[in-house]
TrEMBL record:
Chain residue ranges for the region called Disordered: 838-968
Entry protein name: VIT domain-containing protein
Low complexity composition-biased segments: 851-874
Superkingdom in the source lineage: Bacteria
Domain VIT, chain residue ranges per copy: 226-354
Pfam families named in the record: FecR, VIT, VWA_3
InterPro entries: FecR, TPR-like_helical_dom_sf, VIT, VWF_A, vWFA_dom_sf
Entry-linked PROSITE patterns: VIT, VWFA
Domain VWFA residue range list: 472-649
SUPFAM superfamilies found in the cross-reference section: TPR-like, vWA-like
Length: 1396
């Protein structure tokens, strides 16, 4: 060893210089390697996505790198690509600066980084305001620049024409530069100087964009927070600035969880309560919500909604810093955050989960940021974590985005950022991958619980080979009486835009729906979508007046009948989705839709029009019908929504789709009802105790051909598997909400699912407190369950690897079904639930600051209980404590101890605006009473002066300062406000409460204009169900006559209660005319003309009183002046005095003239404005029944029997309509159901009524209308007659029936000159029957009469007498019919004894 060392020393001594150089070199290389390894890989620019194809209708082609392909809505558009539309097609492109290009048919544009080049054709440019000057667009040699403007650009060869309808544009060409203002056009050609001229008329081909309405579309990714000053009544809610916003999205296996971390600042000098509004993308689910307090970010807890509201109030009152997130409408959520300190800030973190669509292995992610009024963000950052998969993909995004970590992350950072465009990312595999069309994920629930299964199917169809489907469309417009003129115009505009979006190769039919469907155009088949045919159809729509009830279920058959035999038809409904006739509940409508579509390939699309439309119902019907739902609540949104609709209609679609995963699935839910379009993905959620088969089978039809494919089932392994239960639960909640009209019917089930799976629902909220100790003090249990899955945004590399390892080595139960051992729990590594994310491990043990004296609740995130009056005075706390809670935020005791001296007042609740606090007394004052009701004397004087042509002196409306701060709701769109108002008005409310709700909304600045006030007044008048409530409500508005008149007319329009109608008339017109006395005077006058003269004389005392006008209509009809009667009634209707009485009068006139369809529409308005009223429904059915319109009567009675208040007479009415329609067997079954129900014996026993009507119906069948009855049938009918137990021995039963149930008749027997004494079997006149039992043989000795027991109705009334004789062996049936005339009080029925 020593010898070797000596040799080395000798070598080093002899070669010292080279050796030192070599060692130095090695050290340098090693140092360099260490340096390089320590350096981060610099970010690189992502491929630029300059634009996004938001909508494509018809043939839209993209040419990129010399390759042409057909594209669909949602496709990213790279720089340098060309986009072209075919004949009749349309395309809407959103550019990087937020501007929009709308391409007409036969147009071509080339997309460039600094703008677009119009190659040929005509486009519409909608340019938003821009701080950077906006993009510059080229058209030949001309350049067009615009900001905050709307303009049309048309290029034909070298000629360019620019027409500006909004704002200002600058056109620059080789010949010069001109500024083009709104109402002007410029024409440039070659080197010539541009020519300017005013626009005399421009044919707006855009469908309304030229009317100064920019393309709408609010972003949903950026939340907005409003600050409300608790101690400053009347001050408007402030929009707080966003000082920082950090967005992080983690994408794994086609699932994306997005975390939005926002910090809002309060620049003012006072403490604010924050109201945070946030919307998420369609079908996304909110997974968590956290709020930071004193540096601690604590996750919220999903809690039952009302309990959460009460806990929030408790936390505020005891000096803590809570937050409460609540459901608004499924996409929009609202949170209360208290406090936001003066010159301070609060941080909120919200996360949501969504399933990302995938086509051909391409991944697309969109974070919506643009909005109509975007808020500036101080510091903005966005990161998309693609994981390992990102390193194998080619990534394209916005120009500001960069790719980091070799493709694993895409980031974007901006300061002072004003978002104008959405963030979009497209990731394409570098090497082509064959992604399975069908993937299946299975989560083992463990123990004896069923596993959760999610199958994702992306059709592996060669869409390029599928021929473009023709657009065969049935456009159905709701023309019922509901809605004002603005809503009717929106419907007409939407219909026109849809028809004009069709190409000439397409076909259509236009249908109006109210009380019944009416095909407007064409008369037969389908019309070609030419300009001429469309114009003719729109003309017919304009001629078709609005009126009647809304029978949504009736249009299915009419539309599908015209579309029968077409390959890919579509039905488009345009209306408010408020059924008032036929099937009025969501589940029954869905059932009828499924039945109608079971043999049709048609898809149903719905367009909700108006701020009060039933969006939820229309969305569910569209889902059931395999289509999509759209919404138009403002004219500004019409164009973009119609374009989306046209795009969906023209997209190639698979119909008759079915996915078979074996017979062992339970609670299977498919997101598409048998139809899926190109670019869409179908998800199937289910639970199972069994192993899945080796293969899954998918069947369907596309391009006119059936197909069937089998796919091997390979269970997906990854972190996203743990989220399958939560996604299943979210779909379950959607189904529960879609099954019913009122979500309250499913409240219990929804709460159970929401709490178990950690979901936001209409009945669960997320309550965030400042520490874990605060939860413990409030007694709130912190839940965690493997069924909630992992939080993707909380994963680190080590945890993700562990989850992947666990997924790659699953327990046998994952693949084979449920575990056989009950004690076996699901693997924690597979479904780990991250602990609440905290910044500081030390929880806060106490309140962070002294609570304010008052915290004003300025809006309503939750519905008040019906039995509660949220505006009633607060009760003092027990033991003399000065605190109290009111409304739903009730007083709570912490750990059973009263916190005397520390608890402060919370005026208001999570429900209602409250009066200011009386600090001296420590309690809230009572709400001010409504103004006293005017006396009849004062009303008489006012009306008298009005009749004399002078203006009565009306006291001015009281000027009162708001007693609450302006609420956050006041800053929201009207549609959101209506949702909140509806929640406040749930339950049965008295007049004082209705007035207080109105005052609260006005005091909180929520009704700044008539449009908003009208919407609230409509809600209020519908809740006024008693005479006292109506009187109180109208008395409150006495100082504002126009408002009072509007409310009064709305009540008259819907009520059939004579007491309420009389109360309204007294309020409006006083009691100047005793109409009963007038009727007596008119009855004593001979001649209709004399009666009219007398009536008009009496009406001079009360001009305009609809009671007088109604009598004029009836007298004109009696005089045979039908046209004058109709004109008079329509004038009264146009004045807003349409009422059930007027509808009856006008309907009678129309029916008498033989105009059945128009009479049906007019009559049906009885229920149009009060669809839930059993009295209105019963009245309308009775009107149809007396006119022998049995089908229409049946639909009304069917709806009546579906109501919770249905009674036995309602089912008997349904039986009468069924029998009149020829369905006697159904009638007999209904009568048997009533006869076998529980009841009290006696003359008013509905069970006896049912047996009598059944005897009449059986008698008609036995009589056979004079024709012999087949012996076997006669035997069966006789047996059924015996089973009625109406004959105790040989005897005769005489049964008089009539179908005019508004009349009261009795059966009278005469023998010689005197009347025989007959004993009525039952007091059943209200159901159209009078019956007597006679000794056998007496029936031949008597002459029977039908006699009115009350005044004649003034119309003909048909009657029928059924004589059923039983001799102990057989039945003998004889039927006689007669008719009481208009002036008759009785009619003699043909004798049963020819000798009499």
């Amino acid at each position: 060893m020593s010898r070797s060392l000596d040799r080395i020393r000798a070598f080093a001594k002899n070669h010292s210089l080279p050796l030192r150089a070599a060692i130095g070199l090695l050290v340098l290389v090693a140092s360099l390697a260490v340096f390089i390894a320590s350096q981060r890989v610099p970010p690189v620019r992502a491929g630029v996505v300059d634009a996004r194809l938001e909508l494509a209708a018809g043939e839209v082609r993209l040419v990129e790198a010399g390759k042409a392909s057909t594209v669909i809505s949602g496709a990213p558009l790279p720089a340098g690509a060309e986009l072209a539309t075919g004949t009749g097609a349309r395309a809407l492109v959103r550019l990087s600066d937020g501007s929009s290009l709308f391409l007409r048919g036969d147009a071509t544009v080339r997309l460039q980084p600094d703008g677009a080049e119009i190659v040929a054709g005509e486009v519409w440019l909608d340019a938003p305001p821009s701080e950077r000057g906006g993009l510059k667009h080229k058209a030949g040699d001309a350049t067009i620049a615009a900001a905050d403007a709307g303009l049309s650009i048309r290029r034909v060869g070298a000629e360019v024409v620019v027409v500006v309808t909004r704002g200002l544009a600058v056109l620059t060409s080789p010949g010069g530069r001109v500024e083009v203002s709104a109402g002007e056009q410029a024409q440039a050609s070659g080197n010539d100087k541009p020519k300017m001229s005013p626009v005399l008329f421009w044919d707006d081909w855009t469908g309304g964009m030229g009317d100064g309405r920019p393309l709408a579309g609010a972003g949903s990714g950026a939340g907005r927070i409003y600050g409300v000053s608790p101690g400053l009544p009347g001050e408007k809610a402030k929009v707080l600035e966003v000082s920082r916003q950090s967005v992080r999205a983690v994408i794994r296996e086609g699932l994306a969880e997005t975390e939005v971390d926002q910090t809002f600042g309060n620049p003012g000098g006072g403490v604010l309560e924050g109201w945070y509004w946030f919307s998420v993308p369609e079908r996304a689910i909110v997974t968590s919500f956290a709020v930071e307090t004193n540096g601690v970010l604590v996750e919220g807890e999903v809690t039952e909604r009302k309990e959460a509201a009460a806990r929030y109030a408790t936390a505020v009152a005891t000096g803590h810093s809570p937050a409460l997130l609540e459901w608004v409408d499924g996409r929009t959520y609202r949170s209360r955050i208290y406090p936001i300190p003066a010159s301070g800030a609060r941080r909120v973190v919200l996360r949501y989960l969504e399933v990302l669509p995938s086509q051909g292995g391409k991944l697309e992610y969109l974070y919506p940021m643009r909005g109509e009024d975007p808020a500036r963000i101080g510091e903005f950052s966005l990161e998309v974590d693609l994981g390992v998969a990102g390193s194998k993909m080619r990534i394209a995004s916005l120009a500001d985005a960069v790719v980091e970590d070799g493709g694993r992350r895409v980031t974007m950072r901006r300061s002072g950022y004003l978002p104008r465009a959405d963030f979009q990312l497209e990731a394409t595999p570098i090497e082509p991958q064959q992604r399975a069309a069908l993937t299946v994920a299975r989560f083992a629930a463990g123990a004896d619980r069923a596993d959760y299964v999610m199958a994702r199917y992306v059709p592996d169809i060669d869409w390029a080979a599928v021929p473009a489907p023709p657009g065969d469309v049935a456009v159905v417009v709701d023309t019922s009486a509901s809605g004002d003129e603005a809503v009717r115009q929106q419907k007409a505009a939407a219909a026109e835009a849809i028809l004009r979006a069709l190409s000439q190769k397409d076909r259509f039919v236009l249908i109006a729906i109210d009380s019944a469907p009416t095909v407007l155009w064409p008369k037969e088949g389908l019309a070609e979508a030419t300009d001429k045919e469309i114009a003719a159809a729109l003309a017919r729509l304009a001629e078709h007046s609005s009126g009647g009830a809304t029978d949504l279920g009736a249009f299915f058959d009419a539309a599908l009948g015209r579309l029968h035999g077409t390959e890919q038809p579509a039905v488009v409904y345009i209306g408010d989705g408020l059924p008032t006739s036929g099937e009025v509940s969501g589940d029954r409508l869905a059932e009828r839709l499924r039945r109608s579509l079971s043999t049709s390939r048609a898809r149903l699309f719905t367009v909700a029009v108006g701020s009060q439309s039933n969006v939820g119902l229309l969305r569910e019907l569209a889902r059931q019908g395999g289509g999509q739902s759209f919404r138009i609540d403002r004219m500004e949104t019409a164009t973009s929504e119609v374009l989306r609709l046209a795009s969906a209609i023209k997209t190639p679609t698979i119909t008759e789709l079915s996915i078979d995963l074996g017979a062992g699935l339970d609670e299977a839910m498919l997101t598409a009802s048998g139809k899926v379009s190109r670019g869409e993905e179908v998800l199937l959620f289910a639970r199972t105790h069994h192993a899945l088969p080796a293969e899954a089978t998918v069947k369907g039809r596309v391009g006119g051909k059936d197909f069937a494919k089998s796919y091997p089932i390979t269970l997906a392994q990854g972190t996203s598997t743990s989220l399958v239960p939560r996604l299943w639960a979210a779909e379950k909640v959607r189904r529960l909400l879609g099954e019913v009209t009122d979500p309250e019917e499913q409240r219990g089930k929804i709460v159970e699912v929401g709490l178990e799976y950690g979901l936001m629902t209409p009945f669960t909220s997320i309550l965030a407190l400042e520490s874990e100790a605060a939860y413990a003090r409030q007694g709130i249990r912190r839940r965690s369950s493997p069924l909630r899955g992992v939080r993707l945004t909380a994963l680190d590399a080590r945890t993700e690897r562990a989850l992947m390892d666990a997924a790659l080595n699953p327990a046998p139960a994952v693949a084979m079904g449920c575990s056989l051992r009950k004690e076996e729990a699901p693997s924690e590594s597979v479904a780990a639930v991250p602990a609440p994310l905290v910044v500081d491990d030390k929880p806060m043990d106490g309140p962070n600051q002294t609570p304010p004296a008052t915290v004003m609740a300025t809006a309503t995130p939750t519905e008040p209980e019906p039995a509660e009056n949220a505006l009633s005075p607060a009760k003092p706390a027990p033991g003399g404590g000065g605190g109290a809670f009111r409304g739903n935020a009730q007083r709570e005791e912490l750990d059973g101890q009263e916190i005397a001296g520390k608890r402060s007042m919370v005026t208001g609740s999570a429900n209602e605006e409250q009066p200011a606090i009386d600090k001296a007394k420590g309690r809230a004052p009572e709400a001010p009473p409504p103004p006293p009701m005017a006396t009849s004397t004062s009303q008489f004087e006012a009306t008298k002066k009005l009749a004399e042509g002078t203006t009565p002196r009306v006291p001015p409306p009281p000027v009162t300062s708001p007693v609450t701060p302006c609420s956050d709701v006041a800053r929201r769109p009207l549609a959101d406000r209506i949702v909140m108002w509806s929640k406040r008005l749930r339950g049965e409310l008295d007049g004082k409460t209705l007035v207080s709700r109105y005052q609260a909304a006005r005091g909180a600045c929520e009704i700044p204009d008539w449009r908003a006030e009208q919407a609230l007044l409509d809600l209020l008048q519908r809740k006024a169900r008693t005479e006292d409530a109506v009187t109180t409500l109208l008395a409150h508005f006495e100082p504002v006559p126009d408002t009072r008149a509007y409310v009064a007319q709305a009540i008259l329009r819907r009520t059939v209660d004579p007491r309420i109608a009389a109360s309204v008339r007294r309020t409006l017109f006083g009691e100047k005319i005793a109409w009963d006395q007038v009727d007596a005077e008119l009855a004593a006058i001979d001649g209709v003309d004399a009666k009219l003269a007398k009536l008009r004389e009496r009406m001079l005392v009360a001009p305009g009183d609809p009671q007088g006008e109604l009598r004029v209509v009836r007298l004109l009809a009696e005089a045979g002046k039908k046209d004058d009667a109709l004109a008079q009634g329509r004038r009264l209707r146009d004045r807003g005095f349409m009422s059930p009485d007027l509808a009856l009068a006008l309907g009678d006139v129309l029916a008498a003239q033989g105009f059945q369809d128009e009479a049906l529409r007019t009559y049906s308005e009885i229920v149009e404005f009060d669809a839930q009223s059993p009295e209105s429904r019963r009245l309308l059915g009775d009107v149809f029944l007396r006119n022998a319109w049995y089908g229409a009567a049946y639909r009304q009675y069917k709806t009546l029997t579906d109501l919770p208040t249905a009674d036995a007479p309602s089912f008997l009415r349904l039986a009468l309509a069924a029998a009149g329609s020829g369905r006697v067997d159904e009638a007999l079954r209904l009568e048997r159901q009533v006869a076998s129900a529980e009841g009290t014996p006696g003359p008013r026993d509905p069970r006896l009524w049912a047996r009598l009507w059944a005897a009449a119906h059986l008698a008609r069948l036995l009589e056979g209308e004079g024709k012999p009855v087949e012996p076997g049938l006669a035997e069966g009918l006789s047996r059924k007659l015996k089973e009625l137990s109406l004959f105790s021995g040989p005897s005769a039963l005489a049964v008089l029936t009539w179908e005019d149930l508004d009349t009261t008749l009795g059966l009278v027997g005469k023998q010689g000159e005197g009347e025989a004494t007959l004993a009525e079997l039952s007091d059943a006149a209200s159901i159209g029957i009078s019956a007597v039992e006679l000794p056998l043989g007496d029936e031949a000795r008597l002459v029977f009469l039908a006699r009115f027991r009350k005044a004649s109705p003034g119309r003909e009334v048909p009657v029928a007498l059924h004589l059923i004789a039983w001799d102990g062996k057989a039945f003998r049936v004889t039927i006689r019919k007669a008719k009481l005339g208009v002036k008759d009080m009785e009619v003699s029925l043909p004798s049963f004894n020819p000798g009499l």
